[in-house]
Specification:
The chain is mainly α. It has one domain. Helices cover about 75% and strands about 5% of the residues. The protein has 15 helices and four strands. The longest helix has 29 residues. The chain is globular and about 55 Å long.
């Protein structure tokens, strides 16, 4: 290949980037839905909904890209993961459908707005929890035999996967609260500022709990984090988490508008970096590597030009949409 590109590693990076983009972008609008029951009916709920109205559906582009990219570039991994995690993945997709329908119908069917608000919030909570359970189950490992899934229907359900699910709900709620601090004014901003402080505490505690439990899932995880001399590099992740956490609480104490959201995004980015440390070089833990699961080399070469063109286009129109709808959002909004 030109320039010596390792195509399986390149596509693994693209998929990891798509997952990160989905988590940080769709995470805050899922977080708004998680917070919805705690917002007063009327202007505050309308303002919260309008703050995500222009971007929420575009954010899910990255979910499609991540899933489609996995199918195209790593079909073996896609088949194994989907077979192992059918239940939480289907729950997530159904929740996203309910959430999307509720989002549109609450404006068009005001007589039943209370019902649609419940559907929007429930869909957001279930989708976030299902994503966390999926991640936790993947970290636990997937039983594989003869290149196929060899586990049971409920292997995904465990105390660890539930812990990750609850942690992700809390983290998304933090993203939603800091997003509303950035996008709103008045009583809604003040309320979400209080939420953000409490959710920041909960998110840090949850991250610490998941981080402490992960190395004990498998010996390989322990070695990747604590073996010498690589511990000198992996130790930078928790160190950066401490620094970002300090800046987050400092910015919340000083009632900053933008910094809390940026620091919440940074926490999620560091969480993904920690996930990469634990999993690499496997794509289906504990035994299927990136290169073993990759599609044939010619297939990856065929897809490469499309990826090099489409990813910048998606980044461009996503950035443009956020730029156009920058600034504070009122309750009359975009509906």
């Amino acid at each position: 290949m030109p320039f010596g590109i390792d195509l399986p590693m390149f596509f693994a990076f693209i998929i990891a980037f798509a997952i990160l983009a989905y988590v940080v972008m769709d995470g805050f609008d899922l977080g708004v839905g998680i917070l919805f029951p705690f917002l007063p009916v009327g202007r505050e709920r309308d303002s919260a909904m309008n703050s995500i109205a222009p971007v929420w559906d575009g954010n899910e582009t990255w979910l499609v890209m991540g899933g489609g990219g996995m199918l195209a570039a790593f079909p073996l991994a896609y088949g194994m993961i989907l077979s192992a995690l059918y239940a939480p993945i289907i729950a997530m997709l159904l929740a996203l459908v309910f959430r999307g329908v509720a989002f549109e119908f609450r404006w068009r069917d005001p007589r039943h707005r209370a019902l649609w608000d419940v559907a929007f919030s429930t869909g957001s909570i279930v989708a976030a929890f299902a994503q966390g359970v999926t991640l936790g189950a993947l970290l636990q490992g997937v039983a594989v035999q003869n290149r196929t899934y060899a586990g049971g229907w409920f292997d995904w359900l465990s105390p660890f996967s539930v812990l990750v699910g609850v942690s992700l709900v809390c983290g998304y709620a933090l993203l939603g609260a800091t997003w509303l601090v950035m996008k709103s004014e008045g009583s809604l901003q003040e309320r979400c500022h209080r939420f953000a402080f409490r959710l920041a505490v909960g998110t840090i505690v949850a991250m610490a709990a998941v981080s402490a439990a992960t190395p004990f899932l498998r010996e390989a995880y322990w070695a990747r984090w604590f073996a010498w001399p690589q511990v000198l590099f992996t130790a930078q992740v928790p160190l950066l988490v401490v620094i970002v956490t300090g800046i987050l609480f400092w910015s919340l104490k000083r009632a900053h508008h933008y910094t809390p959201f940026l620091m919440a995004l940074a926490l999620f980015g560091l969480g993904l970096a920690g996930l990469g440390v634990s999993l690499y070089p496997n794509i289906v833990p504990p035994s299927v590597t990136i290169w073993e699961a990759a599609a044939p080399h010619d297939s990856l070469k065929f897809m490469l030009p499309g990826v090099l063109v489409l990813v910048p286009i998606i980044l461009a129109y996503t950035g443009y949409s956020y730029w156009v709808f920058r600034g504070k959002t009122g309750h009359e909004g975009y509906h």
